[in-house]
Predict the 3D structure of the following.
Amino acid sequence: MDSELWSLVGEKAALAGIMIGFALVVAMYSTWAERKVAAYIQDRRGPNRAGWGGLLQPLADGGKLFFKEEITPRHAEKFLFILGPTIAMILACMTGAVIPWSTGFEWGDSIIVPQIADINIGFLYILGVLSLGVYGIMLGSWASNNKWSLMGGLRAASQIISYELPMGIALITILMISGTLSLRGIVEGQMDGYWNIILQPVGFIIFLVCAFAETNRTPFDLPEAENELIGGYHSEYSSMKLGFFLFAEYINIFISSVIIATLYFGGYDIPFVNDVSLTESIGMNWMAILHFLSLFTKACFFIFVFMWVRWTIPRFRYDQLMDLGWKKLLPLALINMLITGLVILLLNN
């Protein structure tokens, strides 16, 4: 029994290490992709000096952050000043623990399922981790002892609280349709029927808008509005502490894109393909690879949407941001939930 337990622990630790490493690589090259997307939209080249097509630019940026001087403000709360970006980075990596990346594959005599934890309250876990993410921003902004940083932290806290409510209600409609909180169960339900984007288009729009707000992306980037708050909650940060905040944002974008694909676009499901017959033809391992590529392709599309919106839509005023969350999205999410419940009740009767 002990050997089986240690084998399971080793398997999960390996999956966690691979997932975190993969998320870091995607986040690193998302910075390169964002510069390229911005350059294309603005009719210029973007990074093209470090490596072919600028592919080594993320490594150059990481090296610059790593070797820059660490500066801690004299009147800052040093422990909390360091703890803030640490929490932001750790929680960003924790969010992906319940995501089913593909079907299982054979490894020796065992079948490994690429999901760190298949818990039956999967997206409640995601909401919980997302709600904790604001603590890193709040601690870092308050510990900086800078009024602009504190204002950015307060904006981030109120923004995340405001948009968590409609996001949670949008997720309730997914629960009502699928009958499970397990992300793998939600994916398997979409493989057997319709994708949730067809059944819940309004819920998808609400969730997408809230995802922009939760990740502090334009047009919801008021916590770090450079022209108002000189960088916002990370104004006093430098070197890798600043890098942790920036990396956490891009990891959150990647994980949010994967979650959107999982909840509304079938997850690792390959459209217009009979998975059972294809698995019999090519084998379990190749099918797992195809499933992973399907999910990753969908996630890359939504990462592009995040970047596209940033470089095309201007930032909201703060009153517009709060008005959208409380007076538009929240009532819309409630109405959508009530209509979904009514339709399910009528269909069951």
